[in-house]
Amino acid sequence: MSGRNPSRFAIHSAIGGRSEQALPRDTMTLARVLKSRGYFTAISGKWHLGLRPEVGPRKYGFDSSYGYLHGQLDQYTHLYKNGDRTWHRNDEFVDESGHATDLIAAEAVRVIGAKRQQPFFLYVTFSVPHYPLQEEEKWLAPYRATIKDESRRLFAASVTHLDDAVGRIVKSLESSGQLSNTLVVFTSDNGGQREYHSDTDYGGKHGPNPTLGDNRPWRGWKGEMYEGGVRVPAFAYWKDRLKPRVLNEPVSAMDWLPTLAQLAGAETKSDWKLDGRNVWPLITGAQTRDEPRTLYWTDGRTSAVLDGDWKLITSQRQPQQVELFDLASDPYETKNGAMTNAARLQALRQRLNEELAKDAR
Question: Which residues does 59 contact at the CB level (< 8 Å), separation at least 6?
Answer without folding.
Answer: 25, 50, 91
